[in-house]
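Reopening this one. Same input as before:
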Amino acid sequence: MAAYGGHRVKFIYSGGNRDNIPQNVTHLYIHEKVTVIRRELFMGHPNLVEVHCHAGVIRIMLRAFFRCPSLRRVIIPGVETVDCFAFEGCPNLVVVKCHKLERIRLEAFSGCESLSNINLLSVKIVEAGAFKGCKAMPRVTFSKDLESLEGNRRDHRQAFVGCTSLESITIPLKNGLITGSDTFIGCKNLKRVKLVDDGVLRDFADALLLE
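Same output, byte for byte:
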């Protein structure tokens, strides 16, 4: 924890704007009446370490947790959409516990250098730069439900650009799945690609086959 001598300070967010959120909060709990985490609500919060959402929270909006330097763990069991830049620049974020996540928007987790544990089995859409610079992810596993891995080479927003620890990825075998070139540029350790074809897992020890 970054401040207040490592003391655990709990806070239940039940609504209101940024001014209602104490700066010394380390552990945030979302009240059951809140179903959407509004844009920029916790942006830049200096001491936030953990976020606990109930299953009724379905969306995290633009820059909701942008550049929260102490954030390490996020529990979002019912969230379906994580909007653009929602967790961008959270360098100490390690764990994201999710079960219904379907859409990860533009640079949602960009710059989360410590992110190593996130469940992507329910994900359908991964937008450009979603995991840009996530240097700690050793493997990524998608299910047959994945529809699109987006990327923009021109402004270096490929979905997994710079994920230097990524060694293995599992994706479905679908035409048009990867919409941008060099989606995995800078993933220097990517050596194994597993393709799910009609429920059958085909293992290739050559990442170049992805292209």
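So the earlier flakiness isn't reproducible anymore. For the record, The chain is about 0% helix and 25% strand.
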